[in-house]
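quick one, 314 residues, struct below
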Amino acid sequence: MKIQLKTRKIIFFVSVLTVLASAAGLSFCYLYSRQIPLTSSQNALTLAEVSREIPTGVILWSKKGNIIQSHFKEWHPKVVAKGKNPRWSPDGKKILFTREHDTWIMDRNGAQKKLIENTSDIGAYWTRDGSSVTAINRLNPRQVIRYNLKTQKISIVHDEAKPPFRGYQLEQCAELRSGGRFLLTFTQDDGHRSMVIDLVKKTYIMNEFMEKGDCNPSWSPDGRFIIMTRRSIMRPIYLANFLSHHGSVKESRYLVGKGRCHNGAVSNNSKYVVYSSSGDIYLWKVDAQPVKYRHGTRLTFDADQNINPSVFIF
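---
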């Protein structure tokens, strides 16, 4: 009887110690994670690993009407301008952004200049050679316009109101690839759909998922693939390869993310994807395919309207 009682006391004492140790461990992990961003995925990199792998990487994003910038090597976010929707130029020397429905351009030294008035809330996009920018006309969302940086002239590159097009109102994305032949965009008309428009053959190109409502499309700079948010319960980021030689989009495959993922963008070397989810920014290496719903490397930890990321690898 005494032995049983003693055994019970030992078990109870060990159990208490285990609970206390677990609580202390959880508390330490919580405090530590608030100071140093840790990976939330076995496949994703930690921020320390990101800084070693891409030490010359610089990321922009917007938060509460400000554009924030930080280097991966020395993570220190700072405000660089008022605005949103920042996008690096192909050579990394300039930044496009929007302010009060207008498109602005900023040099890396901070000099700013207004380019186009009344562009869509999603902002403007660089052409592949960096000579022009394209945007959806806010006053006529059926039109995609191009601003030539050298001549400072605006031209219409696509008009949905002209047959054989269907007159969709365009809302997300105005990216051109393959020398200006293919346009990536999105409409809420006809049940929501992301699509590529062949401006030569005047046809719409999409796969099954795109037709059913994938949104927030973004093209890799090299034109090889498109990333989109899947319209489902989890809303992860999906990727679809684009075959420019015969103008087709392959089937979508799961890339990364969980929760409501959006604002996906691809780095200039087409190796990394950045996206927003629940008010924070995440990064994922494209060739690291997850086996289930996971986030990439969490870069911000305040869950406070961090959106529109754009990464450049110098």
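DSSP finds three helices and 25 strands in the chain.
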